[in-house]
């Protein structure tokens, strides 16, 4: 069996240990203090709306007899937003579910456009009807990754700009 440390190394290491305090001079520990609760630092506001986390859910498209619809939300739950094409009227209705429906302004932000619309009470929430030719619908569909709908009537929805939005719009333009 080999000795890993030579005896001289052990003696040198022993010389590095400070001598103990003389008897009777031991320090008495101070009484334990209550720990001060650490407050979390406040979350800084997001400087750019494109950095906001996306509202949970997915878009789901379905054809209707007089047009089409795309609904956004978590599967199995009521949709948070619905775009419906009424081909006969040539308009797209944007409907937003809300716990306390109130009419008022909402702002829609895309990478190319920002517009404030006045939503009205509708069955299932609040909404607004736009002509199918409205360029806001194109701005929503072509926004880079997401668009935001926010205002007192709806709170804040960060929705992905997926193909379903443009598909409903194009269904109304035919």
Task: Walk me through the topology.
Layout: H1 7-14, E1 58-64, E2 67-73, E3 81-86, E4 91-96, E5 104-109, E6 114-122, E7 125-131, H2 135-142, E8 146-151, E9 155-160, H3 163-173
Antiparallel strand pairs: 1-2, 2-3, 3-4, 4-7, 5-6, 5-8, 6-7, 8-9
Helix pairs in contact: 2-3
Structure description:
With 174 residues, the protein is an alpha+beta fold. The protein has a domain at 55-173. Helix content is 16%, strand content 34%. The chain has helices at residues 7-14, 135-142, 163-173, and strands at 58-64, 67-73, 81-86, 91-96, 104-109, 114-122, 125-131, 146-151, 155-160. A nine-stranded antiparallel beta sheet has the order 1-2-3-4-7-6-5-8-9, covered by helices on one side. The chain is elongated. It starts with 6 loop residues before the first helix and ends with a helix.
């Amino acid at each position: 069996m080999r000795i890993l440390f030579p005896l001289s190394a052990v003696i040198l290491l022993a010389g590095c240990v400070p001598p103990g305090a003389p008897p009777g001079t031991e320090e008495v520990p101070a009484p334990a203090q209550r720990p001060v609760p650490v407050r979390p630092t406040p979350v800084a506001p997001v400087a750019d709306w494109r950095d906001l986390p996306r509202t949970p859910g997915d878009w789901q498209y379905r054809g209707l007899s007089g047009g089409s619809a795309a609904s956004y939300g978590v599967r199995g739950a009521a949709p948070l937003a619905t775009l419906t094409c009424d081909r006969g009227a040539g308009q797209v209705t944007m409907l937003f579910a809300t716990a306390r429906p109130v009419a008022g302004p909402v702002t829609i932000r895309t990478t190319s456009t920002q517009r404030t619309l006045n939503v009205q009470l509708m069955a299932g929430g609040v909404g607004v009807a736009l002509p199918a030719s409205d360029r806001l619908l194109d701005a929503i569909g072509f926004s880079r990754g997401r668009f935001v709908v926010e205002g007192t009537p709806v709170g804040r929805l960060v929705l992905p700009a997926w193909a379903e939005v443009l598909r409903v719009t194009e269904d109304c333009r035919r």
